[in-house]
Amino acid sequence: MLAFKIISVRIGYSNSILLVNGPYSILVDTGVKGNLQRFKNLFKQFKLKPSDIKLIVLTHTHYDHTGNLKVLAKLTGAKVLVHKNEFENLKNGFTPIPRGISFKTRFIAEMGRLFFPKYASPKPFVADLINEGEFDLNDFGIDGKIISTPGHTNGSQSILIGAILISGDTFINIKNGIIFPHFAVDPKKLLKTWQQLFDLGIEEIYPGHGPKMKVEKVFPEFEKWKGKFL
C-alpha cells in the first residue's frame, strides 16, 4: 500500500498528477496555461501548502504540459526537472512539432511546422534539475524513479512507482479507444518504449490525457501499431 496519494487532475485538456506526500509532495506536469487557481484549490483540498511541493517534473515540454510552469515554480519554490534531451527546448522556448502518425495528423503537423512552428512550444524556462536517464525519488520519500520513455518526443520521461506508471503522453486514453498518441517524433521508438515498459511489469497507467487505465487495455493497440511501424 502506498504511503502517499496519486491524484490525477485534468487541467485544460491534459492531466497533471499530484503525488501527495506531505512536505515532500511532487507535481507532474502543469497543464494548459491560465489555471493557477485550479492548482491553489487542489493544494488546499489535500491540505498542502504551496511550499510542500518540492519538485515539479515535466514529462515533456509541450505547451499543454508546461502552461502553468512559471507561475507554479514561483508559487511553490519547487525545483523543476526536465529530461536532458529537452532542457534546451525548455530554456529556449521551442519544442518542434512531432510528426503525425496518420495521413491526417501528418498533414496537420506539416501545416503547423510551416505556419505555426512554435505551436507546441513552452514558454522559456531554465530547469533546476536534468534527468540523464534515471532519477531516484527516494530523497522525496517516494520509492520510485523517473525513467526515459522516448518516442512521443525525444525527451519524454515517465515516473515509475512499483507497477504504476505516470506516463505523460507516452500513453493517452481518450475517446474512441485512442491510446497511441496522435503525434510522435519517432513512432517506432515509442513502440519499443512500450515493449520495455511491459517487460518492467507495469500494471496501471496514469496517462497524459484521459483517465487511468490497466495495462491490459494497451495490448491490442500495441499489436495494431506494431504491425504498421515495426
Describe it.
By secondary structure, this protein is of the alpha/beta class. It has one domain (5-229): Ribonuclease Z/Hydroxyacylglutathione hydrolase-like (Metallo-beta-lactamase, Chain A, 4-Layer Sandwich). Helices cover 28% and strands 23% of the residues. It has seven helices and twelve strands. The protein has a six-stranded mixed sheet with strand order 1-2-3-4-5-6, with helices on one face. Strand 3, helix 1 and strand 4 (53-57) form a beta-alpha-beta unit. Helix 6 runs antiparallel to helix 7. The chain is globular, with a radius of gyration of 17 Å. The model has no long low-confidence stretch (mean pLDDT 95).
Topology:
Blueprint: E1 5-11, E2 14-20, E3 25-28, H1 36-45, E4 53-57, H2 63-66, H3 69-76, E5 79-83, H4 87-92, H5 103-115, E6 129-131, E7 134-136, E8 145-148, E9 157-161, E10 164-168, H6 187-199, E11 204-207, E12 213-214, H7 219-229
Parallel strand pairs: 3-4, 4-5, 5-6, 10-11
Antiparallel strand pairs: 1-2, 2-3, 7-8, 8-9, 9-10, 11-12
Question: How would you sum up this structure in a few lines?
Answer:
The chain has about 230 residues and is of the alpha/beta class. The chain has 7 helices and 12 strands. It has helices spanning about 35-45, 65, 70-75, 85-90, 105-115, 185-200, 220-230; strands spanning about 5-10, 15-20, 25-30, 55, 80-85, 130, 135, 145-150, 155-160, 165-170, 205, 215.
Please, how many helices? 7
| CATH architectural name | 4-Layer Sandwich
User: How does the helix and strand content classify structurally?
Assistant: alpha/beta
Total number of strands: 12
Percentage of helical residues? 25-40%
Radius of gyration: 17 Å
N-to-C span: 37 Å
Average pLDDT, all residues: 95
Task: Fill in the CATH topology.
Answer: Metallo-beta-lactamase, Chain A
Measured by DSSP, the beta-strand proportion falls in 15-25%
What letter string, H or E per element, gives the SSE order?
EEEHEHHEHHEEEEEHEEH
What is the fourth-level CATH superfamily?
Ribonuclease Z/Hydroxyacylglutathione hydrolase-like
Sketch the major β-sheet: 6 strands, mixed
As laid out across the biggest beta sheet, the strand order is: 1-2-3-4-5-6
CATH class: Alpha Beta
Number of domains: 1
Low-confidence stretches: none
